[in-house]
Amino acid sequence: MMKDCLQFLVEPAKKLKIRLKETRKRVRNDRKEPLVESQLFIMELARELNKMCQRSHVLSHIWTFEDSWPASVCRDFIVEWAAVIEKRVQPRLIQTESQAERTEKRDWKGHLLCMLEAGGEYEMAPHKRVILDWVLDVRSRPEASIWPGEPVLMMLDDLEFQWKRGRLPNLLPAMELIMLALLNAQSPEKEDVTKQWLVRKQRTQRIDAARYIPHSVWNWICEAAEDVLLDPDTANGDLLISDDAKRMRCGVEGGDAPCCARRFDGWRCAAARRGYASGRRYWEVEVGDRDWRLGVAKARAPRKGYRALNADSGYLTLRLERGSELKALTVPATPLAPGLAPPRRVGVYLDYEQGQLSFYDAQRRAHLYTYNERFTEELTPVFGTAEAMKDLVIRPAAVRGPCLCPGPCLWN
Predict the structure, then answer these.
(1) β-pair partners for 140
(2) pLDDT for 232-270, tens place per residue?
């Protein structure tokens, strides 16, 4: 009797066991697929970097194939970092005749060079050779390995933790950070590697440069928080500005506003009370879910009529249209985050001297887009909304969002 009662549990359990066996078999088969040479190169490079940089055990996930990158990602990484090494390491590292004579020594470099010369990815050979020569140069130095510093180690732990949680698709950011730490150790002018990492990623990859901004870097960005206030004298007549100059929305009916040369009389926008011509500045804005724009306007940017508010006219902005079309208003426009829900809280970060204006999904601490150019004019924060039911809100500078750690913060 008891057996009959439990039969409804036995059959599903058998099916689950069969599915688990099939899954394990599929995973084993997937791992048996041959890796291309660029993937093998990245695995071996990770192993060598771990020997060269202390406490970089995070890279073990790469050479043990726990974290495998697509071949295209591997090739892009190799080409990009070969260019970085050629630019930063002087004189250029070229294999000397004495090094070439050591062909009898079976090291990892010779093994990989033989593989790449065999064909398949032959066009990658010059880039791989630059990286290999740099690795050989670093390993030939008296110090066996470098100490990257506590900030770098905390950032590596943070990236590994987020990768294990599924927030990061791979550990490429960790490998980039270690490469920068090693290059910084060779340079006579020392820099803060964690901050350098962010600036470099946003310069080389304008869109989605970092799907997660590590805690220490995010805190550094937020240290530049600015208390931004709306200027009612610049607001379009259809906009309602709160008494504290922190909120705005569209009125149900258009209002009459005194004529002012600084006022937007076409697009429903308003500017901040002050602009910036130096330094680092950060502000956060709670946005609507249908139609808004955020960014900065250059001093020469027009405010009259309905001329397109894009990069050509002096506006460096992001805009959401029709509730789902998020774009950077470059020329032509650059679509952002396709398939993802638009952000509800946007961080805007201006680094005037670096020539970067960056936008983040502040709730996810994810990079959205960066404008890179040489700034020569005063830049004034600008805000726009076409929503009548929800306020666009500039958050106070002292207010910080909650930590993304599942419990108590791990990084403070």
Answers:
(1) none
(2) 999 999 999 999 999 999 986 655 666 677 899 899 999
